[in-house]
Amino acid sequence: MIALLLALGSSLAYGCADFLGGLGARKAHVLRTVMIAAPASLAVELLLWPFLGASFSAGALGWGAASGIASAAAFALLYRTLAIGPMNVLSPVTALVSAMLPAGVGLLEGEHLSAAGLVGLPLALVAVVLVSAGHGTGSARPSRTALVLACGAGGAIALQLIFLHQAPSDSGVAPLIIGRTVSSAVILVAAGLMYRRLGSERPAYAMSTAAGVLDSMANLLFLLAARSGDLTVVAVITALYPAGTVLLARGVLAEHIHRGQLVGLATAAVAVSLLALT
How far apart are CA 197 and CA 215, in angstroms? Predict the structure, then answer.
């Protein structure tokens, strides 16, 4: 139950971070937004160091660095995917892949589900697709390249979560610190190489910083959840993060929640209830 609650908290934090990051990216080039969000995220993890501890063993360094590289790749692939579109088709593909791969790794590692879990897990995967899909999913057909990029983005997100899970359980926040340092370095190098394309618009500093803080908390909650529960369940619950984005868009921007998304939210509630019994 503790792992489930932590995974739900991680999912909500990821959804809120995506919402604020998306709003920030409307005001300036997305790299300008991430250049603020990434250091803010790293600062939070450094502040947590004295309280949660950090053991920089070889395992923590290696898996943390791998998660940082995967995080940077996920960022590049995700935004390239959404730029090609259609978002309402590709976003569910990305979310589904990011849920299925860690769940598969958990099952291969010998994790077992109860009867309730065997029903709840597929329902949660269905909920991921429904919640992240927009209106008119069948109105546009994505290209083969777009589908490959969407799968790649989902795979990179999945690898980030898997690598964090593989880090030693006694390493504290070390994998998060190393991962964020590596991903921040990659992002800053990319921003330097693309400096002339970034435009002159000033980024939304407050929203970008808040997005970074929330992303850091999401990573921390996922790490704690994966250490106290099954990766199979934790990864799928975490992948429900589009629900938080959808609800915030409704409450803050008055965006309409489509019928399929409402069904997805209800399905998610049922799935979480069943997984709580696992």
Answer: 26
Distance CA 259, CA 247 (A): 13
Residue 86: asked if its preceding bond is cis (omega within 30°), the reply is yes
Residue 6 in this model has a pLDDT that exceeds 80: yes
User: Nearest Cα to 65, choosing from 182, 215, 218, 184?
Assistant: 182
Dihedral sign (CA 96, 101, 103, 107) = positive
Report yes or no: 154 and 270 within 8 Å, Cβ to Cβ. no
In the beta sheet, which residues pair with residue 172? 54
| Chain centre distance of CA 258 | 22
Query: Quick one: pLDDT band at residue 137, thresholds 50, 70, 90?
Result: very low
Each residue of 72-86: pLDDT tens digit?
888 777 766 665 656
Residue where the block lists tokens 């109860």? 114
Sign of the alpha-carbon torsion through 71, 72, 77, 83:
positive
Radius of gyration of the chain (CA): 18
CB 189 within 8 A of CB 75: no
